[in-house]
Structures are given as C-alpha cells and as structure tokens.
C-alpha cells in the first residue's frame, strides 16, 4: 500500500512501484484500486496458505494481493445472498499486462475459498479457462498467450457456495484464422491438435505438421518457447472430459479444425474465359475432398462456392465466375465462418454445463477484455478493441469521477470539482451519430459500390478538422485516432468486408448443407434472420454489421453496463495491470514503459480523487448499524434520528485529525477511504474482542463441563478401583483367617485326638491288665476249684453282699 502521506505525483508513484517491484512485491494499492505489475515469473504467493491468510480479511489489513480483492468481493457476496450485492472485478491493462492470469487467479481463489471446494461446477468453471484459451488465445508480438476475444465471466453463489457460472465472449478476432503477421501464430488449438494427436487420428483427419499449412505457417515459427503443445493438448482433452464433451463432439471439433486447415491449403489457377472474364480453377482437389469428407458436404458444392457466385437480377439467378482474389476471399471467409461457429458453439456448450439459470443468486463477475492495442499495422479489429477499451475507460472515469462528483452535488457536500481527462469526445468521434467513424463505416457497408477508400474519404471529409483525428501525410489508406492511451494509425484495407462480417449466400448454403449440427445450427443463428430458405436464393437478408452492434450498446456488448447501471448497488473492484517492459523479460522495470501506462490509464487522477474524495457512501441507518459498536451504547440516545447517531459515532470514533475525513450529506454519510479503513479496522478489533469474549465464556463453560465430567468419571473410577482393591484385600485376609482357623482347629483336633488316643491306649492297657488279672484269677479259681472239687466246695453259693462288691469293683476298673 502506498503510504498515506506520500506526495503523489508521477515520479513518486513510478518510483514506489519500482521499489516494491524490485523487492518482488508486484501488488500495490492505490486507494482500493489494486495495481499489479506483471513479474513474468511465477512467485509462490498463490498457495492454499495465502488463500487461508486472506480469507475474510478486510482489504488493507494485509499486504496487497489479488486474493485480498477476491476475499473482499467474496465476503460482500456472502453477506447478502441475492443479486443486490453483486460484485464485479474489472481487470484492465494493455496486452500482455497480466489480465487473463489475474482473472484465473481470482477464479482460483474463489474456487478454493468457496465453502464446497470439491464442487463439480467449480471444477468445470475452472476447466473452461484452458479450453477457451486454447481456442481463443494466440501468440502476438506483445504476448505469447494473448486473448483474442473479450471475456465476461459471471460466477453465481448461494450461501457462499459456487452454484453456477456463465461466460460471455465478445468479438473473436477472425482475421487471425486466415492471416498472421510475422512472429505471430494462429489460435493455439491448431498447433496443440497437430502436436498431440496420435498418428492414427492424424491419418483419420488427413493432418500433417503445422509448417505444411498456409493458415499456420505465415508467422514464420510454429513453436512458442516455454509452451508444450502436446502437454496442452492433453490438458485440453481433460478439460473437455470434465466439461462432459462426448467423444462424438470431440470428433466433430477435430473435424472442423482439420477442415479449416485443409481449406487454407486450397489454391487456385487463374484462367480467362472467352469474353475476357476472369475465372479460376482449383489447383488440387485433394484438400477440397478432405474438407468435404470431414464436414460431410458435397465436394462439388465447395468447388462451386469457391469459384463462382450466384447473383440475382430481375428474378433471374445468374452464375458468375470469381477472379482469383475473390476466390481466395471466399475460401478465407468459409474458413473463418467455420472456426467462429465452432467458437460460439463451444462457449454455448460450456454455458450449457455450468450455467444453471441461477439469475437470482449473488454473483461475482470478472471482466477480462483485450487490452489496448497499437501495432505497426492496425486494422478493423484493433479499432474495435480500442473502442471497447475507450468505453471501459469511460465507464471507469464515470464511476470514479463523474458519478461521484454528481453524487456530492446532490447530497450538498462541500467539494471543489476535480478535473480529469474525459475521453467522451473520442467515443463520439468513433461512434456518435450521424458521422462517427463506425456510422460512416456502417453506411458505406450498405452501398454495393462503396469501397474501403470511399469510406476513408468520408472519414477525412467529416473529421479532418478534429484534433483527435489525423490524415496521413503520404497518400496511404490510413487514418489515426488519438486514443486515451495514445495515437493509433488504422489501415482501412478490408474494413468494409470485416464490418459486414457476412458470408456470400452460396457459402452459407454450403455450410447449412453440412450434416454436422455445429455447422448448420451456428451458421443459421449467426448469418441468417429467420430460418434459412432451403431453396437456394441470393436475396436473403444478412445479419447486422459489427459496427452496428458496437454502436448500439457497447456497454452491453462488453457486459460492463451491468456493472455501472446498478451503481452504486453493484460494487466494482478495479485491478490495473501494468506491463513492466516490452520484452516480456522477468523482473525488468522499464520506467518509460510503466510511466506511459500510468499516464494513459489516468492513474494519478484516480488516486487523487480516491484520496481527496469520499468514495465510501453509506446511508445513515446502514452506517449506524455497522459502526455502533465503536462507541458505548450509553452514548447513543434512544430514538434519535440516524443522522444524529452517525454524527455522535463519528465524533467519538474518529480521531481529531480524522474529523475532516467525512461529511454528512442529506441521506448518506460520506467517508474517505483512509477513515473507512480505520473504522473498519477498529470495528474488526472490537468484534474480534467480543468474539474472543464469547469464545472465552463458551470455552470456559465447555472446559468446566468437561472437567466435571472427567472428575465424576475419575471419582467413579477411583471408587470402583478402591472397592476392587479392598475386596481383593478382604479376600486375601479372609483366606488367611480361614487358613489360620483351619490350622488352629486342626491343631486343636490333633491335640484332642492325642489325648483321646492316649486315654484309649490307657484304657486298653487297663482292660488288658484287668483281663489278665481276671484270667489269672480265673486260673487261680480254677485251680482252687480243682482243689475244692476235691473238697466239694465248687458249688457253693456266693452271698448277695459279696456279689454287689464285686460288681462295684468291676465298674471302677472300667
Ligand atoms: N501474476 C503473474 N505471475 C506470473 N506471471 C504472470 C502474471 N501475470 C501475467 N504473467 C505473465 O504474463 C503473460 C501475459 O499475461 P496475460 O496473458 O494475462 O496478459 P493479458 O493482459 O491477458 O494480455 P492480452 O490482452 O494480450 O490477452 C502470461 O503468459 C504470464 O507469463
Ligand atoms: Mg488475456
């Protein structure tokens, strides 16, 4: 970002850009306009880390970057989900300054940041870029990959997700298909096709090497250093696959491309007819047969269309022969019609896939139209391109200066008008009725007898006195216009034909007779009004001329009216691409080259008005709604009008030196960019702080809840564990006690057993002694008895008292 206090003049701006460029800082803000100086070398500044870094950040809070613009546009689109908040990124700059690369980078950013990155539509929109580049870009002296058509890309969002896209193309440069200046190439796709197709398919389409084709070899060198056509052909095929092209469609595309090449090699021999009339013969009919075979049309029909023409006079159809120039023109016109039909079909086909009728959703549009051109030889195409750039520049000025100053007057703001170079007179010179150059051209195009020179005469006659117009000193067929970006000399050769952009009826008939739908449908749409009569006739109407289209509504033609019509609802973001040198050399900053671009793009005036003006305008209620956070709620009296609240907020929120940075109008508050940035920055800080507080409480609550849960679980675990441990201990103790009891009881029993055993033994001993005694007694008694028997006392009765004593004795012994 350029420092606020820098004294802005040409030198300081130029020098600042240089210092930054030397430090490899290619992006610089001047206000909210992003200046991008082409590095011609890839830096590692577009990775996902950078996408994340810039996501949701306000412009100006991080170093300048294309992603910051993408991020700001995306945030706005997400904030409101409808078309009321449409954003448009207007990328301008001269050829080779990096518009197309920037477009792709913004698109890549949107694809990466959108909330469904694996979205198929997103991938298809991304893949449309290499496809259209193959068919619409070519090598020019200024740019090896120059877009030869204008592109307006709309990306539709719903809830922050890409839901569709739409490509609108403008003014494909048709002359390139048949002629290229030295050092230039035809459209990339031809070289890619010849380099990438395998031999079998080359045979199928009858193809040779690029240097064998007149339509490809006029520039001298068919190769571009650093470009691999084979690889790019593979990328093209994969893009077609992602976009759902069928193999028949691919085959048709290759057939049309091949037939254009074959047609280019058709040559003619001059011949004189009997009445001195010029005529031609086809030199070799091999190419004609190839083209007829590939396009599925009659070969004789092609020969007829290229060598004769049908004219109608007094309801009679006359066949006249063409001279060699006319025959060559017919051939080229045929090839151009084929290719341009193919290109229109491709864009329609891509839209058919990616455009889902999503009109009501919010959109980010990116405008990438060809840059201002000033070649050694400039023709009708350059006039169209430069006129488109004049319009773009006019709208830029209108947005930045005119409308802004008108708004200040309406809102009664104190303001001293800033002057700027208005390019409206140039636009009038080119397109104002009735004698604007394009009107003159259109009138001449309707005169059958008119020629390019008669058109030039009319231009000289009507504009010779204008200081924006110049006649050549020598007698050459040229005129010059002083454009906003410098004077350009235009050679009028071919102006009328190119403007008519018509095909002879015979050629239209021929194309419509093709069995290939792309040929007959697109021809019908482009070259006929109403259905083409199947019966050959030379009097059907041709469609409007290019100049008429351009004059009618240039804004609509370039899609830019959408941007400015809704001003200020539709929010434009400007990216100004700068080419640092004319040699396409990396990191080489050529001061005069950059200075010229800064001058003609009105960069300084733009910065001046951005800095001194009030580019930010918000309705009071909107302002209060957005910035009331900046002051305590108690300072804002309830029920006070919004304007009063605005005043309070600004007095309190803006510093003393910033008090001159705003004004209150009748219905809006007007802010300078620097104050808006400060307010936005402070608002972001407060919101961030508030968000952090909310996060803190939420996190505290969550952490507490988690802690309590964990604590409860821990206590439970502890309880269970302790229970288990105590249980285990108890079990062990119980086992030990049981064991002790067992041992004790065992011991006790053993003791008792021993006592009993001893007693039993004693008793047994006693019994045995008793028994022995009894036995001894018995023996003694028997002896006595034996003895008494002799005396006869054996049978004496024992007296009762004695028996009792005996019995007692016995018991004791027991
Ligand atoms: N941001 C970038 N980083 C690296 N190289 C870049 C960048 N931008 C542009 N270039 C280089 O500059 C070349 C030209 O850029 P680009 O094709 O975008 O120009 P352009 O403005 O679209 O030109 P034209 O009007 O001719 O289409 C690219 O091929 C690329 O090599
Ligand atoms: Mg480009």
Automatic annotation (TrEMBL):
<keyword id="KW-0067">ATP-binding</keyword>
<dbReference type="GO" id="GO:0048731">
    <property type="term" value="P:system development"/>
</dbReference>
<dbReference type="Pfam" id="PF00612">
    <property type="entry name" value="IQ"/>
</dbReference>
<feature type="binding site">
    <location>
        <begin position="93"/>
        <end position="100"/>
    </location>
    <ligand>
        <name>ATP</name>
    </ligand>
</feature>
<keyword id="KW-0175">Coiled coil</keyword>
<dbReference type="Pfam" id="PF00063">
    <property type="entry name" value="Myosin_head"/>
</dbReference>
<keyword id="KW-0009">Actin-binding</keyword>
<dbReference type="GO" id="GO:0009888">
    <property type="term" value="P:tissue development"/>
</dbReference>
<protein>
    <recommendedName>
        <fullName>Myosin motor domain-containing protein</fullName>
    </recommendedName>
</protein>
<comment type="similarity">
    <text>Belongs to the TRAFAC class myosin-kinesin ATPase superfamily. Myosin family.</text>
</comment>
<dbReference type="InterPro" id="IPR000048">
    <property type="entry name" value="IQ_motif_EF-hand-BS"/>
</dbReference>
<dbReference type="GO" id="GO:0000146">
    <property type="term" value="F:microfilament motor activity"/>
</dbReference>
<dbReference type="InterPro" id="IPR027417">
    <property type="entry name" value="P-loop_NTPase"/>
</dbReference>
<dbReference type="GO" id="GO:0009653">
    <property type="term" value="P:anatomical structure morphogenesis"/>
</dbReference>
<dbReference type="GO" id="GO:0016459">
    <property type="term" value="C:myosin complex"/>
</dbReference>
<feature type="coiled-coil region">
    <location>
        <begin position="757"/>
        <end position="789"/>
    </location>
</feature>
<keyword id="KW-0518">Myosin</keyword>
<dbReference type="InterPro" id="IPR036961">
    <property type="entry name" value="Kinesin_motor_dom_sf"/>
</dbReference>
<dbReference type="GO" id="GO:0098858">
    <property type="term" value="C:actin-based cell projection"/>
</dbReference>
<dbReference type="InterPro" id="IPR001609">
    <property type="entry name" value="Myosin_head_motor_dom-like"/>
</dbReference>
<dbReference type="GO" id="GO:0048513">
    <property type="term" value="P:animal organ development"/>
</dbReference>
<keyword id="KW-0963">Cytoplasm</keyword>
<dbReference type="GO" id="GO:0051015">
    <property type="term" value="F:actin filament binding"/>
</dbReference>
<feature type="domain" description="Myosin motor">
    <location>
        <begin position="1"/>
        <end position="684"/>
    </location>
</feature>
<dbReference type="GO" id="GO:0007015">
    <property type="term" value="P:actin filament organization"/>
</dbReference>
<keyword id="KW-0547">Nucleotide-binding</keyword>
<keyword id="KW-0505">Motor protein</keyword>
<dbReference type="GO" id="GO:0005737">
    <property type="term" value="C:cytoplasm"/>
</dbReference>
<dbReference type="GO" id="GO:0005524">
    <property type="term" value="F:ATP binding"/>
</dbReference>
<dbReference type="GO" id="GO:0016020">
    <property type="term" value="C:membrane"/>
</dbReference>
């Amino acid at each position: 970002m350029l420092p606020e206090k820098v004294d802005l003049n040409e030198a300081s701006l130029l020098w600042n850009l240089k210092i930054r460029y030397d430090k490899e800082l290619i992006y610089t803000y001047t206000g909210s306009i992003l200046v991008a100086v082409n590095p011609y070398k890839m830096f590692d500044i577009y990775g996902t880390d950078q996408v994340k870094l810039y996501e949701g950040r306000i412009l100006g809070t991080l170093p300048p970057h294309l992603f910051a613009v993408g991020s700001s546009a995306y945030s706005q689109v997400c904030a409101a989900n409808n078309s009321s908040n449409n954003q448009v990124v207007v990328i301008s700059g001269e050829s080779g300054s990096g518009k197309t690369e920037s477009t792709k980078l913004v698109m890549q950013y949107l694809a990466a940041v959108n909330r469904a990155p694996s979205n198929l539509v997103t991938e298809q929109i991304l893949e449309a870029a290499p496809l259209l580049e193959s068919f619409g870009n070519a090598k020019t002296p200024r740019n090896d990959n120059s877009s030869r058509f204008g592109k307006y890309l709309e990306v539709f969002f719903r809830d922050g997700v890409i839901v569709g896209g739409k490509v609108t193309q403008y003014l494909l440069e048709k002359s390139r298909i048949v002629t290229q200046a030295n050092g230039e190439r035809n459209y990339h796709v031809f070289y890619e096709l010849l380099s990438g197709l395998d031999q079998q398919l080359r045979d199928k389409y009858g193809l040779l090497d690029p240097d064998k084709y007149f339509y490809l070899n006029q520039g001298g060198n068919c190769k571009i250093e650093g470009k691999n056509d084979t690889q790019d052909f593979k990328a093209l095929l994969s893009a077609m696959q992602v976009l759902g092209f069928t193999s028949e469609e691919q085959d048709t595309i290759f057939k049309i491309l091949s037939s254009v090449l074959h047609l280019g090699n058709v040559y003619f021999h001059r011949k004189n007819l009997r009445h001195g009339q010029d005529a031609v013969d086809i030199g070799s009919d091999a190419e004609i047969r190839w083209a007829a075979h590939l396009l599925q049309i009659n070969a004789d029909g092609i020969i007829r269309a290229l060598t004769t023409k049908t004219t109608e006079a007094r309801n009679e159809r006359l066949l006249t022969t063409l001279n060699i120039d006319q025959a060559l023109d017919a051939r080229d016109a045929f090839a151009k019609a084929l290719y341009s039909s193919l290109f229109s079909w491709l864009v329609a086909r891509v839209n058919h896939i990616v455009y889902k009728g999503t009109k009501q959703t919010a959109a980010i549009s990116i405008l990438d139209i060809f840059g201002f051109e000033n070649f050694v030889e400039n023709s009708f195409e350059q006039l169209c391109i430069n006129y488109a750039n004049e319009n773009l520049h006019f709208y830029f000025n209108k947005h930045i200066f005119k409308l802004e100053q008108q708004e200040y007057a309406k809102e009664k703001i104190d303001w001293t008008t800033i002057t700027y170079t208005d390019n409206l007179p140039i636009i009038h010179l080119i397109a104002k009725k009735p004698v604007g150059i394009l009107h003159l051209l259109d009138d001449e195009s309707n005169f059958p007898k008119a020629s390019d020179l008669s058109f030039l005469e009319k231009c000289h006659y009507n504009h010779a006195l204008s200081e924006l117009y110049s006649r050549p000193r020598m007698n050459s067929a040229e005129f010059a216009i002083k454009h906003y970006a410098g004077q350009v000399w235009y050679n009028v050769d071919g102006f009328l034909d190119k403007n008519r952009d018509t095909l002879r009826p015979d050629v239209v008939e021929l194309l419509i007779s093709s069995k290939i739908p792309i040929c007959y449908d697109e021809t019908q749409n482009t070259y006929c009004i109403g259905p083409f009569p199947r019966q050959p006739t030379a009097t059907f109407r041709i469609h409007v001329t290019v100049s008429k289209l351009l004059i009618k509504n240039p804004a609509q033609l370039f899609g830019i009216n959408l941007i400015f019509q809704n001003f200020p609802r539709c929010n434009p973001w400007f990216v100004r691409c700068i080419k640092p040198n004319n040699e396409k050399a990396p990191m080489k900053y050529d001061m005069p080259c950059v200075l010229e671009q800064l001058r003609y793009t009105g960069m300084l005036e733009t910065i001046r008005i951005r800095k001194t003006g009030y580019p930010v305008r918000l309705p009071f209620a909107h302002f209060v709604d957005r910035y009331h956070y900046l002051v305590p709620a108690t300072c804002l009296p309830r029920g006070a009008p919004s304007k009063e609240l605005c005043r309070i907020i600004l007095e309190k929120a803006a510093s003393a030196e910033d008090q001159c940075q705003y004004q209150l109008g009748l219905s809006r508050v007007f802010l300078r960019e620097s104050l808006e940035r400060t307010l936005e920055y402070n608002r972001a800080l407060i919101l961030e702080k508030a968000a952090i507080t909310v996060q803190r409480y939420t996190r505290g609550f969550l952490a507490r809840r988690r802690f309590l849960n964990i604590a409860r679980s821990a206590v439970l675990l502890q309880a269970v564990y302790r229970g288990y441990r105590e249980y285990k201990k108890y079990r062990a103790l119980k086992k030990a006690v049981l064991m002790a009891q067992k041992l004790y009881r065992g011991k006790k029993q053993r003791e008792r057993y021993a006592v009993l055993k001893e007693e039993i033994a004693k008793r047994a001993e006693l019994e045995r002694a008793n028994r022995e005694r009894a036995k001894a007694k018995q023996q003694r008694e028997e002896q006595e008895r034996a003895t008494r028997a002799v005396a006869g006392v054996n049978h004496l009765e024992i007296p009762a008292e004695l028996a009792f004593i005996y019995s007692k004795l016995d018991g004791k012994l027991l």
